Amino acid sequence: MAIYALERKQWIQVFAAWTGWLLDGFTTIAYALVATTISKIFLPSSLQTLGLAIIFAGFAVEALARPIGSLIFGNYLGDKIGRKNMLSFTILGFSIFAGLKGLLPTYDQVGLLALILLYIVLFIEGMFAGAEYGGGTVLALESVPPESRGFIGSFVQSGFGTGYFLISFIFAGISALFPGNSFQNYGWRIFFLILFIPGIIAFILRVFAHESPIFEELVKQKEIEKVPLFRLFRESYKSVLYGLLITTGLLFINTATFSFYPTIMSLLGYNNILIGTYLAIINFVSLLGVWFGGFISNYLKGRKKSLLIYSIMFVILVGPLTYIGYTSVSEYLLIAYSLQAFLEAMIFATLPSFLSETFSKKYRTTAVGFTYNGGAIVGSLAISIIFILSGTFGLLTSWILMLYIASIVMLIGIILSRETWTSKEDYIKY
């Protein structure tokens, strides 16, 4: 079945999953975009030298909660009452706590309690966000045939880049409306409160979505596991381990690029309007990369094969591109980081279909969510680690070094993993 031949019901399921990733892109990058601003708002002046490292540690707080949320919601909701029902619940919590950051008190108002409250909100937000990847990916990919799954998986994944693209333009617009101190006083609050909007849209779409046919068959055959989590680690612990190597490396790379670009541009002297505009362009290019990677993977007839080819291409060019882009010459930065984003997005393109086809349908939501979000625990520390190492090696050297180390970890995981789909076998049915 060609992609364009999917039924209306299938497209609703795909878009229901895609909107969750859109919100994730909105929230993650919104936090990165205002990191330099809120480091002055949530911390005392005495901690300003460590301000960015402390604020970016919020990524680690949220990332730690993601695998916990994926296990809780995947195990007790996604694999027991259905992918669609779980997603309708989790998107509400995700959007509420994402926007709630805009209502938090500052250090001047409540002291260090401001930072503690920020971390608490990030942790709860992360729990809800952790359910999105497993539930959304599985709902979409269990609903489409294997010959369409590579591109559909990449399309769902592209929701993150779309959210990044949109929030970058919104950031540029709000920065223009609230220049200088007005952005630091209240512009950042409006920026966070906007995050409620995609959550509402996603919830409405999920209300009208259907359950995946594979889960409906599980219910019909009375094959629902009482505790899917136990069976997952009993039967598929090696697949979980190899998957965690892949996602740890890839999400470390992702944090050290997409989430780091705003800070790099700020340190190089770019203003907020230019930062927002350039990030939007970079992420538009990344969308082309993720769609292209998913499309090509269908013809390569292999998810592992696609991941390996794309990863090798990225590793060859990541060092030179990072070096070239680290400059105040804006044209070089834009071209280098756009190409880097394109190659990285190609790797992400195949990941949804690869993970969905790796695990049994009886614990797939739990497995996919945990394997993806578990990689974010170390990956989320990327920026903080780079800043810590920069005191010894310098910022640029530390950045390139960590990108290579993360790439090696990712490649090891890919090489050890098994192929999940060829034209002869479709493991998602089992």
What does this structure look like?
The protein contains 19 helices and two strands. The chain has a single domain (3-429), classed as MFS general substrate transporter like domains (Growth Hormone, Chain: A), CATH 1.20.1250.20. With 430 residues, the protein is an all-alpha fold. The longest helix is centred in the middle third of the chain and has 32 residues, at 146-177. The radius of gyration is 20 Å and the shape is globular.
Fraction of residues in β-strands: under 5%
Fraction of residues in helix: over 70%
CATH-defined superfamily: MFS general substrate transporter like domains
Largest sheet: 2 strands, antiparallel
Q: H/E series, N to C? A: HHHHHHHHHHHHHHHHHHHEE
Identify the CATH class: Mainly Alpha
Looking at the structure, the CATH topology is Growth Hormone, Chain: A
Structural Rg = 20 Å
Quaternary structure of the protein: single chain
The total number of structural domains is 1
CATH architecture: Up-down Bundle
Spatial gap, N to C terminus: 20 Å
Which structural class should the secondary elements be placed in? mainly alpha
- Count of helical segments? 19
Tell me, rounded to a whole number, the average pLDDT. Answer: 86
Strand order of the largest sheet: 1-2
Could you tell me the number of beta strands?
2
- Residue runs with pLDDT of under 50 for 5 or more positions: none
Shape: globular
